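Sequence in, structure out.
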Amino acid sequence: MGLWLKNLSQGRASIGYWVAPSHRGKGAASSALGALAAWGLAQPGIHRLELYVEPWNEGSWRAAERSGFVREGTLRSWLEIGGQRKDMYMYSRLPAR
């Protein structure tokens, strides 16, 4: 799991993660994602967290939703993976208001 600060000058950071097959479905991703998101949004200058998930990856988008991320839409042909353009769901999490 990581927090990328490439767009910090615009108040945004993105999160990415991978869970080993033997640990999937046990709540590890949701717990870790929730903790990292809360920590990230408490850092100066981060006003929005973004997360991108392939539509077929139900476990990942469910973990995002359980961690307070909201799906904003589908980014069509957003990213090249393995030589093919892939759609991605875009999620965000904002500080509690």
